[in-house]
Amino acid sequence: MPASKKGRKILVFSVIGLVVAGLTALAIFRKREPVITVQTEKVARRNLTEIVVANGKIQPVLQVKISPEVSGEIIELPVKEGDTVKKGDLILKIKPDFYIARRNEAEASYKSSLAGLLTAEANLARAEAEFKRNQELYERKLISDSLYTEVRTSYEVAKAQVQSAKHQVEMSNAFLARAEEELAKTTIVSPLTGTISKLNSQLGERVVGTATMAGTDVMIIADLNEMEARVDIGEVDIVLIAPGQKARLEVDAFKDRKFTGEVTEIANSSKGLGFSGGASSTEATKFEVKIRIKEKEPFRPGMSVTAEVETRSRTNVLAVPIASVTTRVPKTKEEKDKGKSGEASQYTRKKSETTVAAKTNRPPESTSPTNAVASAESDSTTNSVASADSGTNNATGDKKSKDASKPIEVVFVLEGDKVKMVPVKIGISDDTHWEITEGLQEGQEVVSGGYRAISRDLEDGKKVRKGTLTDKEKDKDKDPDRKSET
Amino acid sequence: MSLGGRLFNMLATPGEVFEDIRLRPPSVANWLVPALIAIVIGWVGSWIVFSQDSVQHQLSEMSEQAIEKQIERTKPSQEQAEAMRAAAAKYGAIGQKISAMAIPPFTALTTPFIWGLFLWLISKALHAHVDYMKCVEVVGLSSVIGILDGIVRTLMIVVMGSLWAGPHAGMLLPNFDPQNTVHGILGALSVMTFWILGVRAVGLARLTGSSFTKAAIWVFGIWAAYTGFFLGLGAVAKAVFSR
After folding, report:
1. Which among A158, B3, B94, B201 could bridge B215 via Cys, Cβ 3.0 to 4.6 Å?
2. pTM above 0.90, yes or no
3. What DSSP letter does each residue of B213-240 carry, written as one string?
4. In B154-185, which positions are buried (b, 16+ CB within 10 angstroms) versus exposed (e)?
5. DSSP letter for each residue of A182-194
6. CA-CA-CA-CA torsion sign (A316, A322, A323, A326)
7. CB count in 10 Å sphere of residue A232
8. B19 interfaces chain A, CB cutoff of 8 Å
């Protein structure tokens, strides 16, 4: 074999051998741990406005149900749904025949009682004259005692009959007044200026009415110039609501517009809390809140509305993305000692239930299932789902270990190519960011994604590398005001 | 030259080996033995690679990204989204195992015949009379370099902890993204691939009696064409599905 060929073979095999040997040595002796891809964001100062989101319906502020006080057939109904009426306009007429007859009857009775009174007064005059004449005779002892007593009694009876006739007149007069009033009630006029928002009865229908109870709801008149949103807010968030708070409203029928409002009334009792003892335990507890709408638009009663009530705000506070905050369970002293040979972290993950966070994104213990309008990012705030490490799970037992196993909020701060787990105290949150009251400084870089890394994989001291954003995160960066969907 | 000699000499003096097989009758061992070795190396390599924590983490990240994109597109309920994530995790693992078992034998046994056909067609274009099975032997023997590529790639994946590690131009990038078309092109520019293609060109030149340059132009041209086709197909598919 020529020397050049032999030399070439030696060279080639040597190079290949060196490369393979070198790579093999590196593969065996170099400790490799998984490098987790993350996205980061700097801790910055922001203005945050905490928002409670609720759904409800638009209703008029002033709305009157019209129901008659007398029963009968509707003979006149000059309005229809949607008509505008002024105060005093005729809106309904009930057949008055029955009430006219009653009125006539009462009038006749009254006149009869008047005649009875005259008769009684005439009898009284006669009896009085008879009494006086006999009294003189009695004084001169010209008539017997019994005759005198008889005459006197007749006189007294006549007087009483006059009284009775007077009372009869009063009673007849009262019946007449009532009959006239009932007759007047067959004509109903509008008690306010407004719009017929609902018409339940038609011409010719019979309606029921009583003076003491609500009768048939014939129609509803509402002042559509003043509208309010009546929304339902869960029990956890209701404590944050106060009259006077501003709200942004989105009406389904006016998708491209936002309206403003102000909280005017907050219910004292929850919805469904009736005399029977309260709402079913399976139903969420909600309280009705009324929000006066400032804009005058052609709203119709019953339109769906979503309200965002600004509850609290902070100016120029340290904030991190909602996705950055997660929870971990600090290890107890025993677990730290046991795990010293392994993990450097003093925290562990505890298997806990994933809950959909309320808009206010409270920690898991206080999240409400009622007011659940949460962003996808906010899921990770309270989501501490992880596979539990059986060696580090908290032992049941004394109160101390139970306290120590309570999850705490943490963020992961980037330090070089590793992360450090830092416990933080959180304040309020808005759609995208949490306020940090303790634990971080401005300018620090915190891990803000991915979801799995923050909620499960990351631990204190883990190696990370910055990766590219997903499309969702890119969109969020472009439009930070865009709400994420539940 | 013995079979072992032929296999080792492919790394240093391939011309000598191809000259030898040109003069000998066709031998199945020339393509079957390298294919079998490639299958074994492929299985061992897959086992090593998928046992790495960093690779498992990378695969689950990719799967999670894909499923999150799907969830974002279809907007299912919370329970449905969790079910989708669980299904992705479960079937992803099964898919990995199946592909790790199936891909090495499929590739090792089909490549000699497909590329053999290409070389045979090129020999026709070069007006040479070459037996098809000779072309298969040339491709089969050149897969020794593919075996070396497999070993080097496996070791680089273990050392660097990335599924995309290998002796290609993509290693120059700080964050290699296989879904990026440009990154994909750089990933296709592998030292080992060029070596294999060069060796096949040598084999073709020896079998047809033409110059190495002519043979190399044909071989590299065909590779560029089908690589470009598949990269383009991937880019189109990505554009279609992302809409």
Report:
1. B201
2. no
3. HHHHHHHHHHHHHHHHHHHHHHHHHHHH
4. bbbbbbbbbbbbbbbbbbeeeebeeebeebbe
5. HHHTTEEE-SSSE
6. positive
7. 20
8. no
A6 touches chain B (CB under 8 A): no
Angle CA(A286)–CA(A292)–CA(A296) in degrees, nearest 5? Answer: 135
Q: What does the pLDDT read at residue A2? A: 61
Query: With left for phi above 0 and alpha for psi between -120 and 50, is residue A204 left, alpha or beta?
Result: left
Interface test with chain B among A8, A14, A16, by most B beta carbons within 10 Å: A16
DSSP state, A364? G
**Does any CB of chain B come closer than 8 Å to the CB of residue A478?**
no
Residue with tokens 């969790």: B82
The label of the residue with tokens 């399976």 reads: A282
pLDDT in tens, B77-89: 767 777 887 787 7
> What interface predicted TM-score (ipTM) does this complex get?
0.81
* B60 interaction partners in chain A (CB closer than 8 Å): 452
- Cα separation, B122 vs B111, whole angstroms: 16
Spatial neighbors of A324 by CB under 8 A, at least 6 apart, are A41, A411, A412, A434, A446, A447, A448, A454
* Under 8 Å between Cβ of B37 and B147: yes
Verify whether the Cβ–Cβ distance B12 to A33 is below 8 Å: no
A13, A285 Cβ separation under 8 angstroms: no
Q: Which residues of A touch B58 (CB under 8 A)?
A: 34
- State the burial class of residue A307 (Cβ atoms within 10 Å of its Cβ: 0-12, 13-18, 19+): buried
The predicted structure's pLDDT at residue A332:
66
